[in-house]
Amino acid sequence: MSTPVRFTLPESELPRAWYNLQADFSEPLPPPLNPGTREPVSPEMMTAIFPENLVEQEMSSERYIEIPDPVREILALWRPTPLLRAVRLERALNTPAHIYYKYEGGSPAGSHKPNTAVAQAFYNKEAGTKRLATETGAGQWGSSLAFACKLFGLECTVYMVKVSFHHKPYRGLMMQSWGAEVFASPSDRTEYGRKVLATDPDCPGSLGMAISEAVEDTVTSKNTKYALGSVLNHVCLHQSVIGEEAIKQMQLAGEEPDVIIGCIGGGSNFAGVAFPFIREKLKHGRKYKIVAVEPSVCASVTQGELKYDFGDTAEMTPLLMMHTLGHGFIPPKIHAGGLRYHGMAPMVSHAVKLGLADAVAYPQTRVFQAAVQFARTEGILPAPEPSHAIAAAIDEAIQCREEGRKKVILFNLCGHGMLDLASYDAFLSGKLTDD
Ligand SMILES: *Cc1c(COP(=O)(O)O)cnc(C)c1O
Fold first, then answer.
1. What spacing in Å lies between the alpha carbon of 298 and ligand 1's midpoint?
2. Rounded distance, CA 292 to CA 196, Å?
3. Ligand 1 pocket residues where CB is under 6 Å
4. How far is CA 109 from CA 161, 213, 314, in A?
5. From ligand 1's centre to the CA of 111, what distance in Å?
6. Any idea which of 19-23, 51-55, 308-312, 404-408 has the lowest mean pLDDT?
7. Is 134 helix (H, G, I), strand (E, B) or coil?
8. How many angstroms separate the alpha carbon of residue 339 from the centre of ligand 1?
9. Where are the alpha helices (DSSP H) in 137-200?
10. What are phi and psi of 434, to 5 degrees?
């Protein structure tokens, strides 16, 4: 074996604490506001839909928060996840760059999302919650939460956007296999859903509508709370295990990354890989270039505005200070369903504002070229979302070739694409376009 390609940590190296970037921002993160009064939201308001222990985490600026043992025991089913060096991709690109990727696709649900689903299910169980309600678009989040709820003995109700429910039956079946109940949204289970169906019986649904149904279900039911798979501070916090492991694994590889890349939908997998490196940057003056990659047709950071906006379409959530395309923006139906969100995690937006990270946007045809090049060299079929990060990593490596200099590139491969083959079909048969 000439070049080592796989850097793994033993189970004992699974992180013992989550890292909270809120502790290290040079300016405090602007708080969420009550849309009626424009005053900061009180913890009491948030406990209408979230358990107190998670509200406390959401508002915490403690630097490290201990990961409870029952959470670590479940994470240990697939963590620490491997770090790999993409030597075959490097050779195909004929680049002096070294390309590393952290692979989160080996979790039971096939993405990074169980990292927070397990934590959220645990804290709800502790708080006496009996059932969690949530929404899901393409189904990555719904399947992760269904899995986590089953392991902690909670019931789980998922409102899945109706078009996805019919076009992508496999994720719905995963949720049902893990014991969740799944409803195509808009549904006749909520007043909001019935109202929409009365005016438009064939409504295809949207993430905004599904959020409204899940929140209504939560506030009108006993012992039921709501769970969100991205955007919020506590979700970014739970994902920090990715970056904490990657720091140790880069040391095992004997290299320091020059560039760290992640895709951004709501911002959580990017936060997960990048925030612990941002801590190193702030504390030890490291000069990492940190890049968030978004789809060019839903480019909240590169084309949106940084301002207070609603997290959902129906204006039911608090106002969040974030990069946004406007809560009425309906993203085109690109194949990277997980990146179709009008806003951005406030913590990611704040990091960009403070100059700690940059953002770039990519069109989906370029993204799928990168996905196929990656699959044909490294083997893993990536999900369309992290293929945005792959495209940016490839471009960095090509630039290294042109400038004749070596850089160490690290990206987060946050999910596999085995349930996204219809999108590969569209690309391979030449039907995929940029509009
Ligand atoms: C949900 C999802 C995303 C987008 O969410 P982030 O919070 O931005 O990470 C990206 N990739 C995959 C595989 C997902 O499931």
1. 14
2. 36
3. 111, 113, 140-141, 230, 263-270, 338-339, 383, 385-386, 414-415
4. 18, 24, 29
5. 8
6. 308-312
7. strand
8. 7
9. 140-152, 162-167, 169-177, 191-199
10. -110, 120
Q: Which two tokens stand for residue 330?
A: 């309906």
Q: How many CB atoms are closer than 10 A to CB 419? A: 18
Q: Report the alpha-carbon distance of residue 178 to residue 158 in Å, rounded.
A: 12
Residue with CA closest to ligand 1 atom 13: 415
Q: What is the amino acid identity at position 102? A: K
Q: 139: phi > 0 → left, psi -120 to 50 → alpha, else beta; which?
A: left
Tell me the percentage of the chain whose pLDDT exceeds 90: 90
Of all protein residues, whose CA lies closest to atom 15 belonging to ligand 1?
140
How far is 30 from 40, CA to CA, in rounded Å? 9
CA 198 to chain centre: 34
Question: Rounded to an integer, what is the distance from CA 400 to the centroid of its chain?
Answer: 29
Beta bridge partners of 160: 136, 184
**Size of the chain in residues:** 435
What sections of 156-284 are H helices per DSSP?
A: 162-167, 169-177, 191-199, 207-219, 233-238, 241-253, 268-284
- Which residues, in sequence order, are CB contacts of 83 under 8 Å at separation 6+? 6, 7, 8, 100, 101, 102, 103, 245, 246, 249, 250, 252, 253
Q: Is the pLDDT of residue 1 over 70?
A: no
Domains and CATH numbers, the chain: 6-14+68-110+235-428 (3.40.50.1100)
The residue type found at 166 is H
DSSP, collapsed to helix, strand or coil, labels residue 361 as: strand
Question: Other C-beta atoms within 10 Å of 262: how many?
Answer: 33
pLDDT digits (tens, 9 = 90+) for 380-391: 999 999 999 999
pLDDT for res 314: 79
| Tokens 């955007």 belong to residue | 231
